[in-house]
């Protein structure tokens, strides 16, 4: 592992003037992903099986979508702790629309997205207008969304028994043939492309970087900082909403007690992928790689029969390592 | 000339910050097609005045006329809409973005649905032609964080000029530039002047005025002093307008001569570009002034001695014993105190009361046998310090953030006195302090010296350094370029050393 990494490091050092630190971290993360694959393939013959790879892809889909939203917020220099439970609330709302009120599927999906967007907008308003620190505002939202999900669902899962096609949206495959990969994976890829375009090509993305780089300078440039910040949190909320729809379809039910803890995996994915917690740096590609690292690690450790408690310990350690690497690079 | 030709006229401007009356009935006028320099010592209110004009600070009172019309400039945006641009003293760029992205921030050409898509090609193209027009050789796609400070400054200037600017305010634009770059900048300014732009030029470099300014307005201690036509006013006259204060004359001068014992000695200190081969001796009861331009490396020297930054090389001796200082804690334990220019960030726990701040650096002395703080003793100490230093506070329980700047400075001093410091490094001790309170700080410094404490005083206010110090060391670009004795030092001599650049290697 070290030799592979040092080879990457040498290659990076030669291009140092061209690459920036988030790009370096991205390359490092990709290298780490490959190393992980190599190690697990050698350690267990079951790892590199088609079904297992599909499993990793599927496991990445929900966390990946959440991480996309969180990436935007972290680039502004903020944080969003509510993505996990907002995802759950969105799943519950989708279920209410489809299974309780028997409304058409598209309307249910829209309800999920809107719920997430609304929660994000509230986050954004709390942060931008009322100047509540993002950590506290979104921690509050974490609990609000969690509580609302439980209240609305009546503490019980809501199943999509009348609408089997909803489950097929996530678990069926439009690809078919030999590469039968579930749609959820394509949703992740599609969402990533959209997120990447928003981040690099639109005003919203530009101001996310500008805010994270120097908020005061951005304000002095005449940018309506509050409005854009609120919009960015709302966008992050919409990705949580998409995550909610996705997980509901995948599980064929809305599980109101799920969700807490997902935010840490999402933040971890972004940070591992090179998004700087001090703001101003980050990329969607990096975040997607980061999300894959986490699910590959979890999957591999499970195949090696490492108890789940220890898997959690390892992912926690990886996050700290990623942040530390970020600090070391910055200090140089 | 008739008043109607004024592009900008500011009258009766007042602005207060907590503890400081920054602007007191100030005025300023600017004509189209003139370069108007704004001069004054640090803290005279130049930047504040211009920030009011640029919509960054709201004014407390007064009025602003723009082309004869009274206007309210409440936000930076409002200023920009009028065609007023400001280039800030502290760079205000987004270092993660590119040159072009910075220049177009807030007004990016957009296309597509909801006009959300950035037209990056146009941003880069327009930036390229703007930079070419200004003769600035930079790649529009370069990231700001990768550029030198001078290049960043040029980007700031390009950004201001890319707006439809009628009034351009430059707050010490030349501080970080080389002579070649300054000449390039002045060419640009002349070009703008010939196009009818009104340019406000804030600068400490008086020799620049003759080169570029048509008129000079002098400010002092937050007040308007005079406006003169540059061609008719010799530099000496401008300096005397800037300096001519009476308050300093009233303060006691340097105390008796210090003893010959060397308390602190620095030998060949080096750190980065701003501390280069710095050696000096500080004697008992001496006030050693450190003069120089902003960014000359004085604060950096203080920080390495205090252990806030690590030395690349060099040695520090205290009373003849070599010290190993790895952290501020080490420095404090040897009795070295650093009173930073930014009291709010480094010197005080603002949310805590006077008593707690006073004993903060010496808590161990007030702990009982079981480790709890003994309130009676901390109160006694704090009371004594408040009385001794004449700190104006309603009670010991008053939160420090509610005190004036001068009294906050005294609380910092009380803290270090309580910690038994013997060497005091004052970094801009009177910055942001009202004129009246300044003389009191000077008295305190003199008293400390008279008690045998040793003082390093870093100050950018020349009259302050000249009147307070036994000896003055002048720094430029990380080196000590001159040493002057109290008697022989003049502003001119200090300035000469302060601008004495060592030939670039």
Give a description of the structure.
The complex is a heterodimer of chains A (332) and B (505). Chain A has a single domain (53-331), classed as ABC transporter involved in vitamin B12 uptake, BtuC (Orthogonal Bundle), CATH 1.10.3470. Chain A has 14 helices and two strands; from the N terminus they run ααααααβαααααβααα. With 332 residues, chain A is mainly alpha-helical. Mean pLDDT of chain A is 89; it is low at 1-19. Chain B folds into four domains: 7-91 and 163-244, Rossmann fold, CATH 3.40.50; 93-148, no CATH class; 263-335 and 422-429 and 455-505, P-loop containing nucleotide triphosphate hydrolases (Rossmann fold, 3-Layer(aba) Sandwich); 337-421, no CATH class. In chain B, the strands form five sheets. Chain B has a six-stranded mixed beta sheet with strand order 6-9-10-3-11-12, with helices on both faces. Chain B contains 18 helices and 22 strands. In chain B, helix 14 (375-388) crosses helix 15 (405-418). Chain B has 505 residues and is of the alpha/beta class. The longest helix of chain B has 16 residues, at 179-194. At the A-B interface, helix 9 and helix 10 of A face helix 2 and strand 8 of B.
What can be said about this structure in brief?
The complex is a heterodimer of chains A (332) and B (505). Chain A is an all-alpha fold and 332 residues long.
